[in-house]
Amino acid sequence: MKDKTNEDFKAIKTFLEKGKFALDNPNFEENLMSKIVLEKNYRVRVRSFIKKGFICFIGGLTLCVILTLWFLFKNNSYEVISILCLFFLGILGILLTDNYLKLLSNYKILN
Amino acid sequence: MDDFYIDKVLNGDKQAFRYFVRQYKDIAYNLAFSVVKNTHSAEDVVQEAFIKAFKGLKSFKKDAKFTSWFYRIVVNEAFMYIRKNNIDFVDIYEQTSVLTTDEIKENQEWISVQSFMRCLNPKESLVLSLFYLEEKKITEISNITGWSISNVKVLLHRARKNLKELLNKDL
Fold first, then answer.
1. Per the CB < 8 Å rule, is A21 touching B30?
2. Is B161 within a domain?
3. A18: chain B residues, CB-CB within 8 Å
4. Do B7 and B78 have their domain in common?
5. What CATH code is carried by the domain that includes residue B148?
6. Is the residue at B78 inside a domain?
7. DSSP letters along chain B, please?
8. In terms of CA atoms, which chain B residue is nearest residue A41?
9. Can you tell me the mean pLDDT for B71-96?
10. Chain B residues within an 8 Å CB radius of A9
11. Best of B11, B46, B47 to mutate (most A CBs within 10 Å, chain A)
12. How many residue contacts between A and B have a Cβ separation below 8 Å?
């Protein structure tokens, strides 16, 4: 009984082996490796870009707040320069937050 | 040997992953083909499976077999591919149309085996490939596919029966 099972196994194995495939695309390995290396680099780059963006955002915001407060308290009145400073602070804040959120959503897609 | 290269990749040597590509691409291709039944789709599946394996290598536990872990990724990827693309299985002879008459004569056996395999349902042909070509045990097949042991046994029995019926019909 066991011999018959073994014979059956060998017969089916031999039959199936005749239909075995070999991946004959010569560029397969290179394409795959370049994808793997690039994807990893891209992820590292995006991650460092997000870090830099975040540092710039925090730094820029702090600088603008300090400058605005400095101008406000130094002159003890609302001057053109402090209003301009506030205006740029607003623009910078919106731009950076927007880009930061865009980057975050792209990063989610990548993952 | 696998463990050595796994450590290399995890230590940052991305090129060491080539070892796995060279070692397992053909096996993965055959497994993927038994499910998707199309050479181009099988290649896509294998590529995606390798990328997933690379990304998930950190989560691989070394007490398990790398092959079983990797085959599981390939199988999942292949079934996901047919679910996503709603694949309509084309005839094997469509793919042989690019071969010359001499090549077809030379590959006649291959073509007939592949046409038999195409007639089987993806689960059955996958179980046949794992059991006979990769010589995996029922429990290992169950681990790879995520199906119960009794389900694998039933599929294997049905696949054998269908294959024999197809062969008898052809003869």
1. yes
2. yes
3. 109-110, 113
4. yes
5. 1.10.10
6. yes
7. -HHHHHHHHHTT-GGGGHHHHHHHHHHHHHHHHHHH--HHHHHHHHHHHHHHHHHHGGG--TTS-HHHHHHHHHHHHHHHHHHHHT--PPPHHHHHTTS-HHHHHHTHHHHHHHHHHHHS-HHHHHHHIIIIIS---HHHHHHHH---HHHHHHHHHHHHHHHHHHHHHH-
8. B14
9. 73
10. 132
11. B47
12. 71
Mean pLDDT of the B11-36 span: 86
Q: What is the pLDDT of residues A12-63, one digit of tens each?
A: 788 777 777 777 778 888 888 888 877 666 667 777 777 777 777 787 778 7
Calculate how close chain B gets to A38, using CA atoms only, in Å: 11
Whether this prediction's pTM lies above 0.95 is answered by: no
Give the best-scoring range by mean pLDDT among A38-42, B23-27, B58-62, B84-88. Answer: B23-27
Instruction: Give the closest-approach CA distance of B122 to chain A in angstroms.
Output: 15
Is A7 part of the contact surface with chain B (CB cutoff 8 Å)? no
Domain span holding position B40? 1-89
Residue A105 above 70 pLDDT? no
